[in-house]
């Protein structure tokens, strides 16, 4: 470890993660106050980092004419069994259209009708040609004057006197350790994939919907620092095309595909609801009852529509286009089979994440959370993540006024340096990928993965708890041979920290609130009387204990910023 | 998922420290070998985002579906032309389907 250079940096506002939330936060801060120093740090390159690397074919959170922020909130509540942070959903809904217009101003092509209006995909979405969304955001960030540090993996926050004062990180390409001091920090990393055994084997194992490179670092850093987390138990499981794990909304909404079972019957109306979790639940049930496989039927498409459908997928998920070509068919020659994915932890779709107030302040001073790591506001998608970045960024500008940097003790720096780099010193030890597969196997079998139809019960969850504790110990005996492998190892360490919190949340909520996402076999009913509340948690590092905290539901107007 | 890099076409982006594909790969999976050519560390790690396919100035990178999920040899390549991207889907019979998609607005004076 003697050959590792220590790089010291200082900035007013540090943004961790250059995705939708981080890029927009940076650009908006610079627009409001060009003199503020803003640094975005990303473990990849912001031109193609995060879940938008491949692109996107629609802006899925936009208020089309006649839709109000309150309508958006009502929809999100209905889709989430009523229990969301109304204040957070409402405040982000207020900024959705402005964020959308910024994307167009930055150069993102929107589909327009003959009079120049956006083409709606659904009530709350519009169609785009979004293949280039990430390079467009990266260019806007560059032009705004925000500094960017690519290929640096942030490993932990710098916490002094109960305040976040910056973050530590390491280069994934060079032998460098970063000590970045900041007056405020915005965590805008992705959620976590790869906690559960994925759908596909072998060289297709990363053929998943959410980015396999989003490995929960933002959550894990917050957990280790003792930030309060909320609703990890509401996992997100997507209904996707089988094998290629491509999105299905484009088939159902833009191309009017019918959702049918193996007998050709439209089955959704046989079920209680038509919400996002219920569509997945219905599909699983049909398969379980011997009426599978289930499909989105696009056999009504014209030849011209075949080509248009493939274009839409090339804008976001090209794999399925290869699937049709390898099957030597066109989309209208066969219905597209659909299936559930591995469970992901992602606050942009479900609501696992930091417990924040309406300004996106976490429970630790100086630390904000926005986008996929911020809890309480499901279905925020790209534009909702952007708005959260903006809200956090503008509040951070106020927070930093009059604040200065503090002296950091060598002890603090050395402790994190050793935690990060000591696996490089080991000659013998577990390999990161072996421990990753063990994590995925434990979670799949004991904590409601694909192989158990996502179902949970107390006995198995307690097994998961024990196995994860042992896995955490074994991770201290893991080795890495180079800095890339070191990144892979820290990705496993982070995911185990996330998984342990997840299991405690799953154990605590003794009802079934969200079908498939959180389905307790031993408590199969929704119980509004006892469980219409948030399950939060806080990790105590010294005791290695996860404490559960119950929080009451927050209505619109309970916190400031949501009344207007 | 995986990509294949055509040895006859890849020149490692010349003497640049990082080839363009290596600069953008979100998984940090590409590197330059001693022959100054881009290589993938481990194809099992690839997500299928096609960032490298789009970035390559010589169209040396093609993506394909792994055999585990039904891949049988068709490939996708892409070329960026400033305000549009042109995809070439090479099918099993050797035919090519082309997709011409606007991917950025170059002039926004009306906004």
TrEMBL record, chain A:
UniProt keyword terms in alphabetical order: Flavoprotein, Oxidoreductase
InterPro entries for this protein: FAD-dep_OxRdtase_2_FAD-bd (IPR003953), FAD/NAD-bd_sf (IPR036188), Fum_R/Succ_DH_flav-like_C_sf (IPR037099), Fum_Rdtase/Succ_DH_flav-like_C (IPR015939), SdhA/FrdA/AprA (IPR030664), Succ_DH/fumarate_Rdtase_cat_sf (IPR027477)
Cellular component aspect of the GO annotation: plasma membrane
Top-level taxonomic group: Bacteria
Signal peptide: none
A biological process term (GO) from this entry: anaerobic respiration
Domain Fumarate reductase/succinate dehydrogenase flavoprotein-like C-terminal span(s) in chain numbering: 437-548
Molecular functions (GO terms): electron transfer activity; flavin adenine dinucleotide binding; steroid dehydrogenase activity, acting on the CH-CH group of donors; succinate dehydrogenase activity
Residues of the FAD-dependent oxidoreductase 2 FAD-binding domain: 12-376
Gene3D superfamilies noted in UniProt: FAD/NAD(P)-binding domain, Fumarate reductase/succinate dehydrogenase flavoprotein-like, C-terminal domain, Succinate dehydrogenase/fumarate reductase flavoprotein, catalytic domain
Pfam families referenced in this protein's UniProt entry, alphabetically: FAD_binding_2, Succ_DH_flav_C
The protein, known as: Dissimilatory adenylylsulfate reductase alpha subunit
Source organism: Orenia metallireducens
Automatic annotation (TrEMBL), chain B:
Molecular functions (GO terms): iron-sulfur cluster binding; metal ion binding
Domain (4Fe-4S ferredoxin-type): residue spans on this chain: 1-35, 36-66
PROSITE patterns cross-referenced by the UniProt entry: 4FE4S_FER_1 (PS00198), 4FE4S_FER_2 (PS51379)
Keywords associated with the record: Iron, Iron-sulfur, Metal-binding
Coiled coil segments of this chain: none
A Pfam family that the UniProt record links to this protein: Fer4_10
InterPro entries in UniProt: 4Fe4S_Fe-S-bd (IPR017896), 4Fe4S_Fe_S_CS (IPR017900)
Recorded superkingdom: Bacteria
Stated name of the protein: Adenylylsulfate reductase subunit B
The organism of origin for this protein: Orenia metallireducens
Lineage of source species: Bacteria, Bacillati, Bacillota, Clostridia, Halanaerobiales
